[in-house]
Design a protein that fits this description.
The mean pLDDT is about 95. The protein is built from eleven helices and seven strands. About 55% of the residues lie in helices and about 15% in strands. Helix 1 crosses helix 11. The protein is α/β, with parallel strands linked by helices. It has two domains: about 110 residues, 3-Layer(aba) Sandwich (Rossmann fold); about 110 residues, Rossmann fold (3-Layer(aba) Sandwich), CATH 3.40.50.1860. The longest helix has 19 residues.
């Protein structure tokens, strides 16, 4: 099995989910006495968001590459970013990395294609919702991507930064986000909603959505399992 390296801390809550899910999923694949040897380089999600806010993509690339180089030095043969927003510079990181990086965006797009969706909604940080890096692979595959209205985007981005990144799950936030999904389903006729932030599964856990959710964290993990086992 190839050694997996994770750029974690972007944010911590999703890093915990990645670790626990991967460890037990790989144990299930290989045997009851097996746990994988993997490495986590924990960075700061708020530094990532600051680089994006300042449109300092070169600074973001340098910051993430420090983590990637640390993982490679520790023997990582496959690497993944445990957040969606840093994928804004995924292609540049892959070009600079000596080992493969597994894209959460491409994995999610492949899942949408598999389900033959033609129109999907996208939740995430404001950078994920407003930039083109997440949408373009879907558009190329013939899938329309709809984002929430401007005021809804502000609400979602605020709750990600100020609640979910701190491990806080508030009932009021959960109800309001559900209303946004319901509005997009009714008005925009989306067929599924992309949970384009790896902390969003926390808020939608045990929530009855009117449409399927494309959980980018879970989809990414399934792709990573295949990558390290091949």
């Amino acid at each position: 099995m190839k050694k997996l390296g994770l750029i974690g801390g972007i944010g911590p809550e999703s890093t915990l989910l990645y670790y626990k899910t991967l460890v037990y999923a790989l144990q299930h694949e290989i045997g009851p006495t097996f746990f994988p040897n993997l490495a986590i380089e924990s960075l700061n999600v708020f530094d990532v968001l600051a680089f994006c806010e300042n449109n300092d993509l070169e600074g973001l690339i340098a910051y993430l590459m420090q983590g990637i180089h640390s993982l490679i030095a520790g023997g990582a043969e496959v690497i993944a970013l445990t957040g969606n927003t840093p994928h804004i510079v995924f292609e540049q990181l892959q070009a600079k990395s000596s080992v493969p990086l597994i894209s959460i965006v491409e994995a999610t797009k492949d899942k949408a294609v598999h389900h033959r969706y033609k129109k999907v909604g996208l939740f995430g940080t404001k950078f994920t919702m407003q930039a083109e890096f997440f949408k373009q692979p879907f558009i190329t595959a013939g899938i329309d991507v709809v984002v929430p209205q401007n005021n809804e985007q502000g609400f979602i981005a605020d709750k990600i930064s100020n609640e979910l990144e701190h491990g806080m799950v508030c009932k009021e936030t959960q109800q309001q986000m559900l209303k946004i999904v319901q509005r997009m389903y009714q008005e925009d006729q989306i067929e599924a909603i992309i949970l384009g932030c790896t902390e969003l599964p926390l808020i939608f856990k045990d929530t009855a959505l009117p449409i399927p959710a494309l959980d980018t964290l879970d989809i990414h993990i399934q792709k990573l399992i295949k990558a390290v086992l091949c």
